[in-house]
Structures are given as structure tokens and as C-alpha cells.
Design brief:
12 helices; about 15% strand
Length: about 300
């Protein structure tokens, strides 16, 4: 069998644009949904045209037009959705329910990858409000997929390096601190940091792999499983400078949620689960999951030592 044809929904987004490029790089016929709602957003328009120059096909479709979604889906075998679930961007995960209906009607899709790419929502039933809405919405979409009997792969990509590594996992900045760094608790909880291009590479490798059918693909490359203190130490070695370390107790951290806007409260909750509870690594992958770096050892993933050098 040949390589699948791939439709990327949300192809101009933070992860979506990388999925498009990885799909093209791995030789897939790649389609990108062009939504009329883009309007006069020139940056998105230019990005779509750049994909076309690289060989991607642009297909028009709108979430307000069910028939257009069905027609777009019928052109491919695999659908990957990368719509944002972040409240500081645009939280629109439940729009995917319309995509599920289109895939169900089209009847030709052999794999659907919904917009997940973070913490495994199936493990977050006890998550704090209001941040739990991200996980709850993803589980609503999962149930719709399973009820419709659509073949799927869920991707748990953990912490994007652009948001969590370059800033040494500090909030409200994307660059490393110069003098002092806040440590969450004892700083020993293990976290998984992923270069976003590697997330895309692993994702595309999984779409035609029978081993990932109806399973969760966890991205856990061993050398990128680091505690906060280990990440800070890597930066100190690269920058040849020691930082003052200020520990924040879990109570004080959660108290910081008071007075923040909704998006800020969501972020605090997610940080708490990652850096205090260790939710990314406090479990073993069971029968319903596979680990990407073991399935695809040929991928030369970016280590955080290499990644952090960009910030010098």
C-alpha cells in the first residue's frame, strides 16, 4: 500500500504548520484545510501559499458548512486536527465534534488524530478547575470518535520546548532568566520536553503504522525526561552562569491563581499537575499505548542540551 493522503486541519497553527511540513517531508500527499474565516489574516494566507509552493494542496472548508467538511475529508485517508486548546490563543476544541460528524459521514478515513498533543486527558479526571476544561473537552471529543467507530491515534506530546524549555519552565516569559529561577517544590518531578519539529515527525510516522491504531502514542524519548533542576543545570552549564534558585511551595503556587484572568488560572493548574504532581511521568505506558522513540529509533530527536544553545 502507498502512503496515506493527509488532511491537516489547523495547518497554520503552532503545531499544525510543523505537521504539514513533516507530512510533505515524509512523502505524503498533503492537504491543508483553507477556512474562509481566515479573512484578511495575511500571515496565515502567506503560510498557506508557502505550503502550496512546497507541494501541498489547499482545500476549502468551513466548520459552518458541513458539506464542505465532508467533501474535504473525502479527498484523503487520514485527518490530523491541530486546533488550539490553549486559552491564551483560541480554545476551540469542541469544534472538532463537527469534524467527527463529517468523518463519520464520509466513511473513508482510516485514521483520525484529534487535537491533543499535550498531557494525556484520560489520566486527568481529578484535574483542578478551571484548567480541567482542556482535558474534559478532549475527552468529549474522544468519546465522539469512539462512539462513531472512527479509527484513531491519540498523541501525547507532553511539554513543547518553545513554551517550557527555553524559559526553564518559568511562567509569563519564553526566554531564560538572567539572575534567578523559581523552582516548583523540590524541583525533582520528571518532565518530558519535546522539540516541536520532533513532535510532528513522530506524529506523521504513526499514521500508517498498525501498531498505533486505536492507541495513544506517548512521546517519551529517554534523554528528554528531565527534572526542573536538571533542566536548569543544563542551562547553567551552557551559559556558564549559576542562577539563584527560589523554591515555591505547592500552597503558595496555587495561591498565585487568585486574581489572575481565566487563561492565567488555567496555566497555573496545568503547571501544578506537571511540576508538582509529575503527571507526565508518574505512570507506566499500558496496553493501550505505545512509546514513539521505541517504535521509531531512527528519528534523531533534539536533546535539550542542543535546544537550549539557541538561547545563548
Amino acid at each position: 500500500m502507498g502512503k496515506s493522503k493527509v488532511l491537516v486541519v489547523g495547518g497554520t497553527g503552532y503545531i499544525g504548520k510543523r505537521i504539514v511540513m513533516a507530512s510533505l517531508a515524509q512523502g505524503h500527499a498533503t492537504y491543508v484545510l483553507r477556512r474562509p474565516e481566515t479573512g484578511l489574516d495575511i500571515d496565515k494566507a502567506q503560510m498557506l501559499l508557502s505550503f502550496k509552493r512546497r507541494g501541498a494542496h489547499l482545500v476549502e472548508g468551513s466548520f459552518s458548512d458541513h458539506r464542505s467538511l465532508v467533501d474535504a475529508v473525502k479527498q484523503v485517508n487520514v485527518v490530523i486536527c491541530t486546533m488550539s486548546g490553549e486559552h491564551f490563543r483560541s480554545h476551540n476544541l469542541l469544534l472538532q465534534l463537527q469534524l467527527v460528524e463529517a468523518i463519520k459521514e464520509a466513511g473513508n478515513i482510516k485514521r483520525f488524530l484529534p487535537s491533543e498533543f499535550g498531557i494525556d486527558p484520560a489520566r486527568m479526571g481529578d484535574a483542578l478547575a478551571p484548567g480541567r476544561v482542556t482535558f474534559d473537552d478532549k475527552m468529549v471529543v474522544r468519546k465522539a470518535i469512539e462512539d462513531a467507530k472512527i479509527p484513531f491515534t491519540f498523541v501525547s506530546a507532553n511539554c513543547f520546548a518553545g513554551y517550557f524549555a527555553g524559559n526553564l519552565s518559568q511562567m509569563r516569559t519564553l526566554f531564560p532568566p538572567k539572575e534567578k529561577v523559581h523552582i516548583y517544590g523540590d524541583g525533582q518531578a520528571k518532565v518530558i520536553y519535546m522539540d516541536e519539529d520532533d513532535v510532528a515527525t513522530y506524529t506523521i510516522k504513526a499514521i500508517d503504522d498498525p501498531r498505533t491504531l486505536n492507541k495513544t502514542l506517548y512521546l517519551r524519548p529517554s534523554e528528554n525526561i528531565l527534572s526542573r533542576r536538571e533542566l536548569v543545570e543544563k542551562w547553567e552549564n551552557i551559559a556558564a552562569k549559576k542562577l539563584q534558585k527560589i523554591s515555591i511551595s505547592s500552597d503558595d503556587f496555587l495561591a498565585s491563581m487568585k486574581g489572575l484572568d481565566y487563561g492565567g488560572q488555567v496555566a497555573v493548574g496545568h503547571f501544578y499537575h506537571i511540576f508538582y504532581e509529575g503527571c507526565l511521568t508518574n505512570f507506566e505506558i499500558g496496553e493501550g499505548g505505545e512509546e514513539a522513540s521505541k517504535l521509531y529509533p531512527e528519528v534523531k530527536y533534539t536533546r535539550m542540551d542542543e535546544y537550549l544553545k539557541l538561547y545563548l
